[in-house]
Amino acid sequence: MPSPSARDRFLALLGAALRDASLTKLTLGKYRGSDATLQNLFVRPVALKSGPQFAFVWRHGTRDVTKNHPADEALVLLEPMLGRDFLDAHLFTPAQTAQFESQPNGTARLHVKHSPTANVAVVPATPAHNRVKAHRIPTTSPWLRALGITNEKGEPRERMADKLRQIQNFADLLDHLMAEAFPAAASPAGPLHLADMGSGKGYLTFALAALLGDRAEIRGIEARPELVELCNRVARDAGLAAHLTFTAGTIADTTLDRCDALIALHACDTATDDALARGIAAGAHLLVVAPCCQKEVRPQLTAPPILADALRHGIFQERQAEFVTDALRAQLLEWAGYRTKVFEFISTEHTAKNLMIAAIKSRPAGTPSDALAGRVRAFAHFYGVRQQRLAERLNFSLTPA
């Protein structure tokens, strides 16, 4: 009798994980099906009134579609897609990870790594929310306690519940973006190099380190030496210093010899542009920024006649400046060779500065899109914008030749 194929062995592991509820996450990538907008499929357990099910998150270019299925139905849906619509699959359970890689010609391989640890802590659902909250970052993590987010029991300290929620949301989001930007077959050899520009007290830098482990070397850049000292001490005490370090410096002055992914959250005004320019110059495959205090463009705005009356009001001017600045950034990133998404990464009840721009490299360096250049200039001209920091850093003229 022939030995089971790599595909059959992976399906057996998947079926067992679904049936005994040990699955923490399943990621399908390298999509080759008929839907041109579909990129990945993520599967994880959820608890509903009807009982345990599995949430399928279909990741499209500009939207996510979520549907829930019971275990038996989930396996029936997944089986025909494996190795056909999706060439790669990653299965995660507390006891092991399994990676299935297949080629269009039908050849495939399976790699299984046994591990007694898990990166996901599952918190029982409350009746009010009616679902399991799968947290990427265990709330009992020592660094959360050392930074004043949680107490000894893993509960958020006073006025820190929103901050803890932001950290968990950020970790969940980055998990998806990293899988999309660095599929297993295309990941560089050795650990990834990540930079957090303007890391502050390091909340999200530590979340990255906890999420990625020894898969990445992470560097936090912060201008305030006292915060750099604090974060390095916490990293040592939490056992993360082997792949997490903090250095003093500014976004504008920092040199990045290598950078696979860069984040800059709430870098004020043109500091966001400096961070993006640094990441592009370093060849980063993933850029993630949450802009704030978009002041540079506002004095330049020349309202089209139809908008003049509305933009006499200061609040509308402010919001218009934010929109124009971040829309221009997104368009410049696309011109520079990145596939860009703009979305809210957390509810406005937790922070008003909740816009996030994520960009994944889609074209080789040095191949900017001439077709997009005209549209970027037309957009800038419509609002009277003559200069913008990211455009300057990319040597892109906003005025027609």
What does this structure look like?
With 401 residues, the chain is of the alpha+beta class. It folds into 2 domains: 6-122, no CATH class; 133-393, Vaccinia Virus protein VP39 (Rossmann fold, 3-Layer(aba) Sandwich), CATH 3.40.50. Helix content is 31%, strand content 27%. It has 10 helices and 16 strands. The protein has helices at 6-19, 71-78, 142-146, 161-181, 203-212, 225-237, 271-281, 314-335, 370-383, 389-393, and strands at residues 25-31, 38-48, 51-60, 64-69, 86-92, 96-102, 108-114, 121-123, 133-135, 192-197, 216-222, 244-248, 261-268, 286-292, 338-344, 355-361. The strands form 3 sheets. It has a 7-stranded antiparallel β-sheet with strand order 4-3-2-1-5-6-7, sandwiched between helices. It has a 7-stranded mixed β-sheet with strand order 12-11-10-13-14-16-15, sandwiched between helices. A two-stranded antiparallel ribbon has the order 8-9. Helix 4 (161-181) packs across helix 5 (203-212) and helix 8 packs antiparallel against helix 9. Residues 116-133 and 347-352 have low confidence and may be disordered.
Low-confidence stretches: 116-133, 347-352
Mean pLDDT: 85
Biggest sheet layout: 7 strands, antiparallel
> How large is the radius of gyration?
23 Å
Order of secondary-structure elements: HEEEEHEEEEEHHEHEHEEHEHEEHH
CATH topology of the largest domain: Rossmann fold
Intertermini distance: 71 Å
* Helix coverage percent: 25-40%
User: Rough shape?
Assistant: globular
Q: Walk across the major sheet and give the strand order.
A: 4-3-2-1-5-6-7
Strand content: 25-35%
Task: Report the CATH C-level class of the largest domain.
Answer: Alpha Beta
Oligomer: single chain
Count of strand segments = 16
Please report the number of helical segments: 10
